[in-house]
Amino acid sequence: MKIVFQLIWLKIDEGFSNLENFLAVVFVIGAYVVLSLLFRRLMYGPIQEKAISVKNYVIPSKNRTQIEGVLSKYFPYYLALDTGLKKSFILRVEVFLEIKQFIPRHMNGNADINILIAASAAQLSFGLKNFEILHFDKILIYPDSYFSSIREQYHQGEVNVKMKLIILSVKSFLLGIQDANDGINLGLHEFAHALNIDAFITRRSLFFTKFYKEWQFFAELEMEKINAGQSNFLRKYASTNLQEMFAVCTENFFERPAQFKEAMPELYQSMVMVYRQNPLNPKNPLQL
After folding, report:
1. CA 234 to CA 239: how far, in whole Å?
2. Which residues have CB under 8 Å from 244's CB, separation 6+?
3. End-to-end Cα separation, the chain, in angstroms
4. For strand 165-169 and strand 138-142, is the pairing parallel, antiparallel, or unpaired?
5. Which residue, 276, 256, 272, is CA-closest to 184?
6. What is the mean pLDDT of residues 244-260?
7. Are strands 157-160 and 165-169 parallel, antiparallel or unpaired?
8. 85-96: pLDDT as tens digits
9. How many angstroms separate the CA atoms of 57 and 60, rounded?
10. What are the pLDDT digits (tens) for 83-126?
């Protein structure tokens, strides 16, 4: 700033007309820089985006053995990972267990269920730096389908943006984990909604929002094919809207990656870029 004023002062000696020209140039350049920064912030989030590392959390290690035991027994995604990635995965599960409030409804709390829910979120966001889905801080857990007074119908799961809630039916959630190859997984479905919403509300994930817009192009083409009866790989529900399309794509991306890529290679590749991982490499999905 001091240098700018010195230059202006030198220009005064050269004459008022030259000073006006100089100030006009400074104004145009300044306006361009400001508008560029504002546009970047609107499109991709905060300028000084910094990922929150697991190192920033104080994580109690007393549950690590239990977490490892539950994941080794029930969670195929974790089982397939290389040893080093398993350690990173467990750390992320610990973060989710630490920063989210798990609230059982009409049932007793169950630590194993909480671990599996946290693991579903970690699976989805394993390739992302900003992985915590910070907008949603509470997870409501029902034993079975529950009645939503807002929508006046029974649900297996949903996200509530205003209340910052992710709501899951344990029965449907566990069915999704038990069959890891059918493209139906309630945990992945609802966390896909949550991650999508969180990315655009908090604007913390530059890469997610950027590549989501590219994914949208191919998704809309596929939705047209589904509605026209020209494509049946994804279930019809996917064509309801873009949000459901993303959630259903996410289920199939992780559970049926080979079939997905064969049926819709461009849409599959756009999912790889959105999530920054490739399920076709189960030992190291971060290898794109």
Report:
1. 9
2. 237, 238
3. 45
4. parallel
5. 256
6. 98
7. antiparallel
8. 999 999 999 999
9. 9
10. 999 999 999 999 999 999 999 999 999 999 999 999 999 999 99
CA torsion angle 128 134 135 139 (round to 10)? 100
Nearest Cα residue to 67 out of 30, 113, 33, 107: 113
Q: Are residues 102 and 59 in the same domain?
A: yes
The residue written with tokens 């191919």 in the block is: 218
**Does 137 lie in the same domain as 80?**
yes
Residue 115: which domain range? 54-275
Residue 151's SS3 state is coil
Check whether residue 106 and residue 218 sit in a common domain.
Answer: yes
**Alpha helices, DSSP H only, in the chain?**
2-14, 16-44, 64-74, 76-80, 83-99, 111-125, 170-178, 186-202, 206-227, 242-255, 257-263, 265-275
Distance CA 54, CA 61 (A): 13
DSSP state string for 68-89: HHHHHHH-HHHHHS-HHHHHHH
> Do 123 and 250 meet the contact criterion of CB atoms below 8 Å apart?
no
Q: Rounded to the nearest 5°, which phi and psi values hold at 57?
A: -105, 140
Residue count of the chain:
288
pLDDT in tens, 166-206: 999 999 999 999 999 999 999 999 999 999 999 888 877 66
Asked if 159 and 87 sit in the same domain, the reply is yes
Q: How many domains does the chain have?
A: 2
pLDDT score recorded for residue 73: 96
Token pair, residue 235, equals 């279930």
Tokens 């259903």, located at residue: 248
Q: Looking only at Cα atoms, what is the longest distance across the chain? A: 82
Residue 288 lies in a domain: no
